[in-house]
Amino acid sequence: MAKSAPAFLPPAFLDATRAIMPDHLSLDEFIAICQQPLRRSLRVNTLKISVADFLALVKDYDWRLEPIPWCPEGFWIEREDEALRLGSAAEHLSGLFYIQEASSMLPVSALFAGRETPRLVLDVAAAPGSKTTQIAALMNNQGGIVANEYSASRVKVLHANISRCGVKNVALTHFDGRVFGAALPESFDAILLDAPCSGEGVVRKDPNAMSNWSPQSVASIAETQRELIDSAFHALAPGGVMVYSTCTLNAQENQQVVNHLLATYGDAVSIEPLGELFPAADKALTAEGFLHVFPQIYDSEGFFVARLRKNYSVTPLAKPGYKVGKFPFTPLSAKDAAQVAQAAATCGLAWNETSKLWARDKEVWLFPAELEPLIGKVRFSRIGLKLAESFPKGFRWQHEAVIALATSGNPQSFELDAALAQEWFHGRDLYPQQPPQGNECIVTYQHQPLGLAKRIGSRIKNSLPRELVRDGTLDFHQ
Fold it and tell me: Within its chain, how far is the Cα of 114 from the centroid?
């Protein structure tokens, strides 16, 4: 394996890091670990499989899994005999796990550190979706999540990842995150602000991450972060919890951003210390109760995490001047909804009362009921799942709905072996020795739905969306 280029660490950055590094840590160790490759890690997607069942599934693989202490679903992973191509693994393609850096799992663990699971969550900077899918799994697909992404090109990636993981309780928005305090005041009982940052903590993954670093860019980013955290605080309901996090290390983008919020709102906001979040959390704990993770502490990326509580309402921001526009969906009548649900059940698709059916022209969508109060207040890029397109002779069920809603053990399932499953992900039609009995089936592998397909004679027609077709060698255990 070719050795990667050394990480670029600007001298001014090292001087600033030396000034803030705790006495028990060494700058030499920091520099040394920044030159080492980052350990691979994954998070089991409990929307599709339990951790115990996942471990049983992969126990005969040549994977070495080490638990990540702050995330019960997270594991560092190694494999000795060959390069580890996690993105080509069957279990990744079918949504059983998400490739996520270990430190990146910390903010959501901190957000859910309390006893009560939140019902309505805002993820201010959500792409590519690692934390959104982690939130959805901890909510067990209940309640509602608004996942926002400012970059238009990354919204598509965000949707692809939540779809692959079978998430159905998310609405996507595409805004500058600074709009939410005015647009949706005091609407969320939990908010994750994993803020855009200078990326000082990710040099082990990207040696050139700091090629454009400068004290001036840090100051500019910190100003944006102060505006983002102020807006998010206004969008947080009284009694709610916000986690502010970055993958950078300097105090200007971390402690000072939180201190700005404290100085602005006084005792309306309080810090909830994270020293008890997991065993050995005290190694990264600051005097204020934040986690300031230098990469040598846990052999991970660098990260910063703060958990904050909103104690009471503050003076609202001015109402936004934009117009949302007419909402293009209408709720289905009880009669029509029952007809759709009955037709879906014959294909092995089911949902509960936490989701409601809406229609737009011939499209039928499944919206999280928890998000309905937000309709008309903000413009959504996408809500919930596109369930079906209706035709005079029935419904054409959509791929993302099959992935999220297919019930286990339903009679429509047709289990593939590893060779046929690879053909499916390559976008090819299937020719099983014993084709399914019915004209429609849900093809599965490892008992996980891969999509809805039609049988035409002895052939199964591949319906995998073109953007999901994979080229090259896939890693399927025979």
Answer: 20
Do residues 302 and 343 share a domain? no
Residue 91: what pLDDT? 96
Residues 399 and 446 reside in one and the same domain:
no
Q: Are residues 266 and 369 in the same domain?
A: no
Helices 255-265 and 215-235 sit at what angle, rounded to 10 degrees?
40
Contact indicator for 183, 320 with CB cutoff of 8 Å: yes
Looking at the fold, whether 421 and 391 belong to one and the same domain comes out as: no
CATH number, domain containing residue 417: 3.10.450.720
Does residue 227 lie in a domain region?
yes
DSSP letters spanning 154-211:
HHHHHHHHHHHTT--SEEEE-S-GGGHHHHSTT-EEEEEEE-----GGGTTT-TTTTT
391 & 449 share domain: no
Mean pLDDT split into 10-residue runs, the chain, 478 residues: 72 95 96 94 97 96 95 91 80 97 98 93 97 98 97 93 97 95 97 97 93 95 98 98 98 98 98 97 98 98 98 93 89 96 92 94 97 94 96 93 88 92 96 91 94 94 94 82
Domain of 396 in residue numbering reads as: 330-403
AA identity, residue 93 = L
The answer to whether 124 touches 191, Cβ cutoff 8 Å, is yes
Q: Summarize pLDDT for 66-87 with one digit per residue, the tens.
A: 999 999 999 999 876 666 689 9
Between CA 270 and CA 251 the distance in angstroms is: 19
How many domains would you assign to the chain? 3
**Residue 65's CB: how many other CB atoms inside 10 A?**
18
Domain-terminating residue out of 403, 437, 454: 403
- Residues labelled as active-site residues: 247
pLDDT tens for residues 39-50?
A: 999 999 999 999
Angstrom CA distances, 56 to 50, 78, 397, 455, stand at: 10, 17, 32, 32
